[in-house]
Amino acid sequence: MLSVEKLTKVYRTGDTALTDVTFTVPKGQVVGLIGPSGAGKSTLIRCVNRLVEPTSGAVRLGDLDITRLRARDLRRARRRIGMIFQEYALVERLTVMENVLSGRLGYVPFWRSFTRRFPGPDIARAFALLDRVGLSAHADKRADALSGGQRQRVGIARALEQEPDLLLIDEPTASLDPRTSRQIMRLIVEICRESGLPAIINIHDVVLAQQFADRIIGLQSGRVVFDGPPAQLTGDALTAIYGAEDWTAMRQSAADDAEAEAEERDEARKMLRAL
Amino acid sequence: MSAAFPTRWRRPPQMIRSRAWRVVLAVGALVYLTLAIGTVEVNWTRVMVGLERGQRFVAGFLQPDFTTRWRDISAGLVESLTMTLTSTVVGVLISVPIGVGAARNLAPAWVYAICRGIIAASRALQEIIVAIFLVALFGFGAFAGFLTLTFATIGFIGKLLAEDIEDLDATQVEAIRATGASWLQVINYAVQPQVMPRLIGLSVYRLDINFRESAVIGIVGAGGIGATLNTSLSRYEYDSAGAILLLIIGIVMVAEYASGHLRRWVQ
C-alpha cells in the first residue's frame, strides 16, 4: 500500500509544483492521474521514488517512509517500485534482454551486472516476462531496432522484472498511436489485476484514463481537485481540472471508441473460439 | 485587397542597428588592416635565398632517398609508432575516469572542479612546451615523448568525453536509477552504452593526432621519427627528409582512412 501525505515540492527556482497532496492507494488499485500540462503529474510520481526530492511531506510504501531514507536504503526501496516512462527510456544500444535484466540491478552486485552474469531465476523471469508481453523472439535484438509499441512492452517487462510492490507509470501512451495505446493500457491493467499490483498512471488522455483506471485523481496547479471513481468524472469535474471546454463532444468520440473497443474484443473472442 | 500589403521586405539588421555605426566600423576595420599589413617587414633578398633553398627541398621531395638512411628512418618510425600507441592507450585509460569526473551531471561539485582543473592544465600547455620541459627532466628519447603525448591525450579525450556525457539522454539514466541501481551500475548500463561509440571514435582520432605530434615533438628531442627528420634537415640531406615526410604523410592518410571507417562501423 502506498500513502502520500501532505507532499509539497517547491523547485529551486521558486516554482511550486505540488501543494499538500494527500492520497492512499490500496493493494491492486489502478489510479489514473490526470491534469493539464504543468499541473505537477510528472513531479508527483517522481517524488514517490525520489527521482525528484520532495520539499516536505511523507511518502510511505507499507511502513517505510521513503522520504527519510539515506542513499543505500533509498536504492533498496527503489527496486520495489517499478517505473514505466513516456518515451520508453530504454537504453537504446543495449539488447532487449539487457534492458529487461537491468530491472535486477538493485538486487545483484556490480561485478555480476558488469559481466552480464545474472542469477538463473532472474534470467528465467526475464524470458517469462518477454513471453508475457509477446516479445520472446526479440530478446537479442538491440532496443533501437524495435517499434514504439514493442519498446513500451520492453519497458513494462523491465519494470516487472524488479518484482515491484508498486508501479509508477509516466504517460505510457504519449508517443503511441490510438490502437497501440489501448493495447498497452490493457496490458498494464491486466498485469496489475493478475498480481494485485497497485499502479499510478499519469496520463493526459481523459478517455483512456476513464476506460482503464479504477480511480481518477485530478491535479490542477499542484493540488488535488478531484478524487473519485471514473464514473463521477462529470463535465463540471473536468472543468475544475482543465478549465472550461465543451466536454460532450469528447464524450461522444469516447463512446465511439468504447464501442470499437468492445467490437474488437468480441472479434478476438470469436477468433479464439474458432481456433 | 492585396494592394494594402507591402510587396518589398528586407531582413532587418541583427547586430548593429544604426547605419552610421555600421559604416564607421567597416571603414575602421579596413584602415586597420592596411596599416597592419604595412608594418610587416619583408626582406626580399632573404626571400630569394630561401626560394633557392626551397627549390632544393622540393627537388629532394621529388627524388626521395629511402635507402641511404633507411636504418635511421625505420628505427625512428618504429619508435614513433610505439610512442603513439602506448601513449594513446595509457592516455585514454587515465582520461576515462577524469572525463566521467568532469561531467557535471554525474560528479559532485568538488570532483568536477578537480577533474576540470586537470583537463584545463593539460589543454593549456602545448605539446612542444611540455616536450621541452620533459626532455629537460628525463633526457632525450622516446620516454619524454611518451609522457608528453599521454599528458596531451588526457586533456583532449577527457574534455570531449565529459562533454559527450553531459549531452547524453537523461531519461535513460533516470530509468536505470529508478531500478535501484548503484552509481557504478548506472555508469555501466546507462552511460557507457551511450558514449562508447564516440569514445572509440575519439581514441582512434587521437591515435592519428599522436602520430603527427610525435613527428613534431621529436624535433625538440623527444625521440621518434621527428628526431630523425631533424637530423637529416640539419645535415642538409633533403632527399632523406623528403622520404621521411612522404612516409609520415602516407601513414597519416592510412590512419585517417582507417579511423573514419572504424568510426562509421561502431555507430
TrEMBL record, chain A:
Compositionally biased residues, Acidic residues: 256-265
Entry GO terms, CC: membrane
MF terms (GO), sorted A to Z: ABC-type phosphonate transporter activity; ATP binding; ATP hydrolysis activity
Top-rank lineage group of the source organism: Bacteria
InterPro entries according to UniProt: AAA+_ATPase, ABC_transporter-like_ATP-bd, ABC_transporter-like_CS, ABC_transpr_PhnC, MetN_ABC_transporter-like, P-loop_NTPase
Pfam families per UniProt: ABC_tran
Assigned keywords, A-Z: ATP-binding, Cell membrane, Membrane, Nucleotide-binding, Translocase, Transport
Region of interest (Disordered), residue spans: 255-275
Any coiled-coil regions, as ranges: none
Domain ABC transporter span(s) in chain numbering: 2-246
Compositional bias per record (Basic and acidic residues), positions renumbered to this chain: 266-275
Name of this chain's protein: Phosphonate ABC transporter ATP-binding protein
Annotated source species: Rhodobaculum claviforme
Top-level taxonomy: Bacteria, Pseudomonadati, Pseudomonadota, Alphaproteobacteria, Rhodobacterales
From TrEMBL, chain B:
Topology class, membrane: Multi-pass membrane protein
Domain ABC transmembrane type-1: 77-259
Locations listed in the record: Cell membrane
Keyword Lyase included in the entry's annotation: no
Pfam families from the UniProt entry: BPD_transp_1 (PF00528)
Annotated keywords: Cell membrane, Membrane, Transmembrane, Transmembrane helix, Transport
Chief localisation class: membrane
Regions that span the bilayer: 20-40, 85-107, 128-157, 240-258
GO CC terms, sorted: plasma membrane
Keyword Iron: no
Taxonomy, superkingdom: Bacteria
InterPro entries for the chain: MetI-like (IPR000515), MetI-like_sf (IPR035906), PhnE/PtxC (IPR005769)
GO molecular function terms noted in the UniProt entry: ABC-type phosphonate transporter activity
Similarity annotation: Belongs to the binding-protein-dependent transport system permease family.
NCBIfam families: PhnE
PANTHER family, sorted: ABC TRANSPORT SYSTEM PERMEASE PROTEIN P69, PHOSPHONATES TRANSPORT SYSTEM PERMEASE PROTEIN
The protein's name: Phosphonate ABC transporter, permease protein PhnE
Taxon lineage: Bacteria, Pseudomonadati, Pseudomonadota, Alphaproteobacteria, Rhodobacterales
